[in-house]
């Protein structure tokens, strides 16, 4: 069989892909049909023995993908093909009670909720793994000093551990978002053609409650023919937000691995890995680049997800085709991205000596704020201190000298700060603020 979509042969891990494979989807549809029959049996709408037979046959061993496909070619209706296949699999009179009172989306939307629920569980495990990888780096390097950069320029010193703690905290927020939205997203319905439950009779609400409880999902209490697509759009939005965070983290790796910076690098198998087909010397951050590339696809899914929300009246079919692509792709790709990002940081090579060299290469310029604060403490005033340091720093850069020399030769500064005080202000280890405490408190909270 010829494969077209890269998800089929290049991207995606078996655990997540198995949730959205064709047979798995069919199994969930059958599970919902069985839950409906059991719920109707509870209120006396379906004989208990019929519900038991429907439940027994509601498996892909009895109702095969192949048979459903055959029936769909005849009926040109995907869910009706499932109903007919389950009906013919049931013995006795049980088949005539299959799908009684239901509309297609009672079954399909509830099955989708089961898939999203299972996907969220996988993603939650993924996020826990990424938090652990980042937390390990944060604690290991809580005192590893490096340049902090703003606007791509040297700012003030930071520690690599603090950078990783920031990332870990962001992942934890993403995990909280996913857990928070779960109850709003993982909902199904069993309320018929336009949500009134008319075909189920006076016990319609009991049937819906029993079926959703049986399936272990929430209930769309006021539905049209479908579960509100604002729920699906919110899920895609959370996944897209997570994709943006992963791109942020991996972009940092890519930048810090640049030849002229060289402070970290992805793991590289020196025995067999190839960086370039022509430049044999290359070691490229390919895993991080892959995450950044996939992030663009995941974020692009937000627009069609939002456009699926405004359906006509009680529903139309304009959401259907898009959803078949949106939900599996979003889940499979974000799972892949999480796994790759975790591996990047779990095996990341960190080069403290290069971090120190880059810090020292600024010739003290990175300590300008510390000098300003020392001067301000001499009752000079913050604004005047800023002006003096700015002028001294510019002069030092122009002359190509260390900021220390520029400060010592500026009488307005040397008059206020002794040589020892200037040296103290230029010591990057003394200007890390609460970096270590922040790392320790953050990781303690996350763990």
Q: Per CATH, which architecture of the largest domain?
A: Up-down Bundle
Quick one: CATH superfamily of the largest domain? Fumarase/aspartase (Central domain)
Q: How large a portion of the residues is in β-strands, by DSSP E?
A: under 5%
How many domain regions? 3
The coarse silhouette is elongated
Highlighted features:
3 domains; two-stranded antiparallel sheet; two-stranded parallel ribbon; 447 residues; mainly alpha; 5% strand; Ribonucleotide Reductase Protein R1, domain 1
Structure characterization notes:
The chain is mostly helical. Helix content is 64%, strand content 5%. The chain folds into three domains: 15-97, Fumarase C, Chain B, domain 1 (Orthogonal Bundle); 104-266 and 281-351, Fumarase C, Chain A, domain 2, CATH 1.20.200.10; 358-446, Ribonucleotide Reductase Protein R1, domain 1, CATH 1.10.40.30. Strands 1-2 form a two-stranded antiparallel ribbon. A two-stranded parallel sheet has the order 3-4. A two-stranded antiparallel ribbon has the order 5-6. α3 crosses α9 (204-215) and α11 (286-300) packs antiparallel against α13 (320-346). The mean pLDDT is 96.
């Amino acid at each position: 069989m010829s494969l077209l979509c890269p998800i089929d042969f290049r991207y995606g891990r078996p655990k997540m892909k198995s949730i959205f494979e064709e047979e798995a989807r069919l199994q969930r549809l059958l599970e919902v049909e069985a839950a409906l029959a059991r719920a109707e049996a509870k209120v006396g709408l379906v004989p208990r023995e019929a519900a038991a037979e429907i439940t027994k046959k509601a498996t892909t061993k009895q109702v095969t993908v192949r048979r459903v496909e055959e029936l769909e070619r005849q009926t040109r209706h995907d869910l009706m093909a499932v109903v007919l296949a389950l009906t013919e699999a049931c013995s006795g009179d049980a088949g005539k009670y299959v799908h009684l009172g239901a509309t297609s989306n009672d079954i399909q939307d509830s099955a989708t909720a089961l898939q999203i629920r299972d996907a969220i569980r996988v993603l939650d495990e993924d996020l826990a793994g990424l938090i652990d990888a980042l937390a390990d780096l944060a604690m290991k390097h809580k005192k590893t000093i490096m340049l902090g950069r703003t606007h791509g320029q040297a700012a003030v010193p930071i520690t690599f551990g603090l950078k990783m703690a920031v990332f870990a905290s962001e992942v934890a927020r993403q995990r909280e978002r996913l857990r928070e939205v779960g109850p709003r997203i993982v909902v199904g319905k069993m309320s018929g053609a336009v949500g009134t439950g008319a075909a189920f009779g006076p016990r319609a609400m009991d049937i819906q409650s029993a079926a959703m409880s049986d399936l272990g999902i929430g209930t769309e209490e006021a539905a049209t023919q479908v579960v509100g697509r604002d729920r699906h759009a919110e899920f895609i939005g959370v996944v897209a937000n997570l994709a943006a965070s992963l791109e942020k983290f991996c972009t940092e790796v890519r930048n810090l691995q640049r030849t002229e910076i060289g402070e970290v690098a992805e793991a590289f198998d020196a025995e067999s890995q190839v960086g370039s087909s022509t430049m044999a010397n290359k070691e490229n951050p390919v895993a991080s680049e892959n995450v950044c590339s996939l992030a663009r696809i995941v974020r692009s899914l937000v627009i069609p997800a939002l456009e699926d929300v405004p359906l006509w009246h009680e529903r139309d079919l304009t959401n259907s085709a898009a959803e078949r692509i949106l939900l599996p792709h979003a889940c499979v790709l974000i799972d892949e991205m999480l796994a790759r990002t975790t591996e990047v940081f779990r095996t990341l090579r960190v080069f403290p000596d290069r971090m120190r060299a880059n810090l020292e290469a600024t010739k003290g310029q990175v300590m300008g704020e510390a000098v300003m604060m020392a001067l301000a403490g001499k009752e000079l005033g913050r604004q005047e201190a800023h002006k003096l340091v700015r002028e001294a720093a510019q002069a030092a850069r122009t002359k190509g000298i260390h900021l220390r020399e520029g400060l010592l030769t500026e009488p307005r500064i040397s008059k206020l700060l002794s040589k020892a005080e200037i040296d103290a202000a230029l010591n990057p280890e003394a200007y890390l603020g609460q970096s270590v405490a922040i790392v320790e408190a953050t990781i303690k909270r996350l763990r």
